[in-house]
Write a structure and sequence with these properties.
Layout: H1 2-8, H2 15-28, H3 45-55, H4 62-69, H5 73-83, E1 86-90, H6 101-118, E2 133-134, E3 140-141, E4 146-151, E5 157-162, H7 167-175, H8 192-204, H9 210-230, H10 240-250, H11 254-259, H12 265-281, H13 283-290, H14 296-306, H15 314-321, H16 333-348, H17 352-361, H18 372-381, H19 385-391, H20 396-407, H21 430-436, H22 444-461, H23 470-489, H24 495-506, H25 510-522, H26 526-535, H27 545-553, H28 555-578, E6 583-584, E7 592-596, H29 599-609, E8 614-621, E9 632-638, E10 643-647, H30 648-651, H31 657-667, E11 674-677, H32 680-690, H33 698-703, E12 705-707, H34 708-715, H35 719-725, H36 737-745, H37 765-792, H38 796-805, H39 835-848, E13 856-857, E14 862-865, H40 870-878, E15 882-885, H41 889-898, E16 903-906, H42 909-914, E17 922-924, H43 927-932, H44 935-946, E18 948-949, H45 972-984, H46 996-1006, E19 1019-1025, E20 1030-1036, E21 1040-1042
Parallel strand pairs: 7-10, 8-11, 11-12, 13-18, 14-15, 14-16, 16-17
Antiparallel strand pairs: 1-4, 2-3, 4-5, 6-7, 8-9, 9-10, 19-20, 20-21
Amino acid sequence: MQKETGERFPKIPAKPTLYKWVHQFDKTGSVHKKGYERAMNQRTPKKIDAMKAAINRKRMAVRRVASELGMKNDSVHRILKKGLRFHPYKLQTLQKLEEDDPEKRVVFAEEHLEHMEHDQNFFKNLFFSDEAHFHLHGSVNTADLNLLILMSESGEEEEAASSSGSGVEKYFNEAGVESISKVLSEEDLLEYDECIEKIKKISEDSDYTGEEKAAAIIKTLQTHFEYVDEYRDREKVIGAFPSFLKLLAEFENYNKIYTGRDDSSMVHHIFNTFYEFLKDQGDYCADEILYQQVHEQDWKNSLRIVSNFKASTYLDRIEYIFQLKNLQCEDSEDILNEVVEVIHRLLNASEYERAIHWIAHFKLQEIFIDRLPELAFYCFQISNRPLIERYLLDRYELQERLMTYMDNLIDFSEFHGAHYKSLSPKTFTPFEWKYLTTDIENTIRARNDKIMKLTFRYARKWDIKEENIPYSMLARAFKFIVYKHYDFLNGHISEQSYDDTVIHMTEEKEEVQGFLLEYLSGGGYYMKALFLALLLNIPDAIWPSSLKSFEYSHPVDVLKVKEDVQMKRQTIEDQRRQHYEQCYLFENNTYPIYMIDTKDLLNAVIEDVFDLEIVGIDVEWRPSGLSIREIAALLQIATTSTVYLIDIVKLEKILTQEDWENFFMKVFCHRDLKKIGFAFHNDLRVLIHTFPWLKKHVDQIAASSICLQSIISQVVLNHAAFKSVFPGYDRPPQLNLAELSRNILDIRLDKSEQQGNWAQRPLRVEQKKYAAMDAHCLIKLYKEICKRLEMGIKDLEIINGIFYASRITYTEKKHIPPPLPRPKGEKREKQPITDQELDGIVKKIRDELSYDSDARRVQDVQLIVDNMINHIGKELRNCGIHTTLVSNRAQLIEHANRKKKTEILTMGKAYDQLRPMFPGRVHSLPVNLSANQSKAQQIEFVLRELKIKVYEEDYFTRCMKCNATQFVNVPGPIIKYMFMRYIMTKDLDFMPKYTTVDAKEARKALQHISAADYGGLKCEVKFFKDEEMTLITAVCEHGNIDI
């Protein structure tokens, strides 16, 4: 049926629509479209008469009337107001002042002053109360007096009911209360045509400022909505909701026609004013207004207009006003189709961001499943990943569908071997190409890297199985092989480690084996390719032709390779045998290393460490080429006399979750057992990825764990602590375990096995010793640091503060809906350094450097700040320091070579790379300091490290944006005009709306700037006209500004 309908009509209905048509025909015998009639008015003449009869009886409360008539309280209120024209008044009674009252008040005050002079407790014996009515039968009435006035059709006011019966009117007359005015006077009433005419008159009136126009328009709209709602029963008076829809259509393009620019402020005023009007009416009355009968075309047209609102916050209001809830219900088919039509219009106009908001808000992802790749790549293009994450939240099938789609984009023509090119996609769609080719390096490799980065990111986030992204995993394996070969050639890993990793990765994987041989042969490494081909028994069918030719033409080399293969196989057998043999960390057979790979051995470890005071903890991970997730392979536990290597790879196959929980509870959650780690939050994260149930114990683990990296980060912030731990050092070393072991313990760690394959079994002896040494050093480092701090610092509060601030905090990334993107123009909330913080920092550093002969003023320092820490460079400019910000490493090197007196501020590995190139000129910000400390602490560290004294007069002597030291002072009208012109070129919902009339007024003010009005600030504004535009220049005392 859908196919036949599509052949006859250009627009094909959606499948759910066809099903609903069939269901409606079976149910009603017709597929005729329902109209948009709203619910009937509940104020029937019968109910109004019953209400009038009820209220004629005195002392009848609203709740009692509702109970007797079987109506709701809201209905009674509505009939009183709309049907019987009652209006509630809040009355205030004032006593009439007589001629002698002022004199009496003076006498009264003087008498009380005399009482106070003689008796200090006079006022304590006085009691003051609010007005109340005391009845003889003992009751007290403290309620306010309310009066309901009935407005008759002739305009006369009649008393209907009151809280005190017929004596109320007499009471007010005796008290001197004047007559009560009507709520709305006839002059204030605005019908539809009058409202339009008045709004246009306000908009075109040049005597109004922008803010005054907005206020007058909103007031006019409020009055109009109140009138058409109050008197909608009159002839030719439409209700508030129909009037709202017509006003939107009337003023949709009004500002564009009048001001000549696309300005939607008028429809925003109408929409927001009507929304606030509904909120003031209460839920019941608002629902009755929204169910007034309207024309179908007006409703559709208005929905189209409000769909152009850019702020995502309007969607809730649109849903409320247009009653768009429960679109999936059968009775909402027509409204659903209109919403779908709106979204299609947005997509066709390339308004993807608004379309995504509409689809996600109304949960219509399944209907637009074919547009999913297009929407996703748009979000990637504008770097708005949270938007697509919210779009696909809790929709696993759609998440899996997007991952499969992206996985198929991998282009295998990047890799060696013609047989991989058949896996490559033929072409990219325009939106794919636009995203994948934005980088400067427009190559197949760059596109693959971009696709894989996104795929793996969301596969981890959404828990997508690796078998669902086979092409990405295959490409990841290929790239990992290339990366390991590069490390091997550059001496970063040993040949044994390289061979073990390659063998483990290519076992029983013909695609990876074929790529390995193609890559090695293509690079001329025939001996290594032949060695691995024979060792892995790779079939000749997948050997490259060049490798076959090499084997045929080099028989001598082939014999040598075969001998190497035999030796390697023998080495592997020896490793399997040594795996179960005990080895030692040091050559004199001290400090034994035990491999723990059975349940009995693990229980023995628990008994051994349970009564200890301190252990060292380290974790080795599986290679990244084997999995997209961080999975632990080996857990090292070092005591003062031995090291245990917990074989997670093997134990996972034989232990139950109960066995693992027993181990972690008795070792890691043991409060009296102090566990020392380095960057322990990373190890803890990997353990939780490996054992997800461990997250519920993370607080217990962190409570008794100590991270050495965090301690050192706090030490470098405290001058006395730094001098105690690193005596003789002017600047702190890099915060890695190898550097700290060398500087504090004089132990040089061999890191050649750091990137080894820790998932292979058996482990080599070199791997065991490397893993044991890392855990062993942690205990020695901790004890030595504590010893130096106790010797160098006598104040225990400082030491306790360092250890408290370095405590481990692990925050799990919760899978919660990502925040919606900020509306266009809205800035991210920043936390700059306050003036009080800056004053405290510079004063503290000045005091420390007061007797230091090497201390410098800001005028003596010129800095180049690496692009990784540009935010610190801007704050240094704020202090008056000459600071150059660079965008990349090449620009930094070029500038440093040209300016020989400049110093460089960087961090991480860049410090080790730049230090040999610029001796004595490079300073480092510790990595952990940048990640975990506030901006104020970072600035304090830099000022102390560079020995810079900052004074108050140095503040704001440089521009934070351009580093200049000269500023141009201009009068206020120039700033106002520049701001106004800037706002008019943007579409910012949160800023005031200016028109060309406002701009003309501001420009006229530029011609009459008097120095006397602005503190003697002289400024001359010059206008230069050419054929196309008018150029405005402000000539000031310290420079010129092109306005």
